[in-house]
Each structure stands twice: as structure tokens, then as C-alpha cells.
Amino acid sequence: MSTLAAPPGIWHVRGATQQLWPTRIYQRITPTGPDTDTLAQQILDCELADTSLSLGVEGARKSAPGILTWDLPAIAALKAWIRDAALAVTDAGPDTPLTMLGWAVHYGRGGFHEVHAHHDSAVSGVYYLQTAASVSGALELFDPRPARLATTPHGASEPRTVHPDPGLLIAFPSWLRHAVAPHTADSPRLCIAFNVTLEGP
Predict the structure, then answer these.
(1) Which of 99, 137, 162, 174 could form a disulfide with 183 if both were Cys (CB 3.0 to 4.6 A apart)?
(2) Dist CA 72 CA 93 (whole Å)
(3) CA angle 50-54-55, nearest 5°?
């Protein structure tokens, strides 16, 4: 006697706990050195001539979204790491064509970024070039389930925080709400934010 396959979307309960709709967060520690120092300096050199608007960002400068086109060794390496991250977050195949967009954000003392999400891409993330030694300017990731706000004890819906360190790359689904806590140090917080779109069917 043959067993008919379940239609797509049907979940057979088999008496075990199963997670539905988990959120994948990708983290990778990458090497830093002369190449990343050169990239950071070029970002700072270009900042004075960049007239891009820093919408949603207070106390910071956001560059135009063309950094991933720069012909630098650190950018070539970063693009490969971003590709790995996007495939891991989405479970896409290794030959999936991707489009990447990246921009620098330079936070000064007191700078922060309001809670937001990215609705025109599949994966978003950030790569840190320069950060403060203290816990400052943390990335905050928010629970994406609105109903949890009304059904959990006080404090259960607090954001998960990620301390920025030079060389850290973190990626997540673009629909995940996130923010940057106030940067309270005098040393700069310099990073490259990015969006990835999956191409094809």
C-alpha cells in the first residue's frame, strides 16, 4: 500500500517538537589588517565630498551605495563573504545569482539608527571596520513576531544585542527589524551596511 505525499504546506504532527519559521542570523569573524585599514581610510577620505542623505540616522554620515564597486582587495574579499552569508541565510543554491548593494556609515559620539527593516531585498547585514573598545553602538535585533509583545512577560521582547568588533560580519533576513544603539565613545564606529537581492526564479 503506497502512502500519498502531503500537499505543500501540510505539516504532519508526529508527537515531537518542531520549530516553524525560525530566523537565521549569520555571523563571521574576518581578518583585519592593511587592506581593511586602506578601505577605512578611503571611506573617510571620500566622506567630505559625499552629499548623500543619512535618512533615519542621527549623528552619523551615510555614503552613497556604491562602495562594493570599488577596486580594492578588501572589497573583493568582502563581496565573497557577503555572498556566503546570503546563501547561508536563504538556503539558496551555490550558483544563485545575487545583486549586492553596500554603503558606509560613520557614527560619531551620540550617533544612532532608528528601528527599521529593508523591504526591497532578501538579506541585509553589516560589516565592521572600526569600533570602540567599550560596549557602544550595539546592533539591536528585534523579535519579528508582533503577537509575542502581548503574550510574554515584561522584558521578554527586549532586543538581542550584538557588540560590534572590527572584522565582524553579520547578516539576517531583510524583514527583521533592527537598530543601532547610541554610540557613546569618542572613537569612530565605521561600518559597511549591505543589502542582497536574489536574482532569477
Answers:
(1) 137
(2) 27
(3) 150
Helix H or strand E segment including 172: strand 168-173
Judged by phi (left if over 0) then psi (alpha if -120 to 50, else beta), residue 59 lies in left
Question: From the CB of residue 40, how many other CB atoms can be counted at a distance below 10 Å?
Answer: 21
Can you tell me the distance from the alpha carbon of 131 to that of 135, in angstroms, rounded to the nearest whole number?
Answer: 9
d(CA 85, CA 199): 16
The three cell numbers of residue 183 are: 554610540
Query: Do the beta carbons of residue 87 and residue 94 sit within 8 Å?
Result: yes
Q: Is 8 helix (H, G, I), strand (E, B) or coil?
A: coil
Backbone dihedral angles phi then psi of residue 188, each to the nearest 5 degrees: -75, 155
Dihedral angle sign, alpha carbons of residues 104, 123, 85, 115? positive
* Residue that wins the pLDDT comparison between 200 and 154: 200
Contact 95, 185 (CB under 8 A): no
Which of 189, 191, 163, 159 has the alpha carbon at shortest distance from 176? 159
Nearest-angstrom CA–CA distance, 58 and 115: 12
189 forms beta bridges with 107
State in Å, rounded, how far the first CA of the chain is from the last one.
36
> What's the length of the chain?
201
pLDDT tens for 45-77 read: 988 777 666 666 778 888 889 999 999 999 999
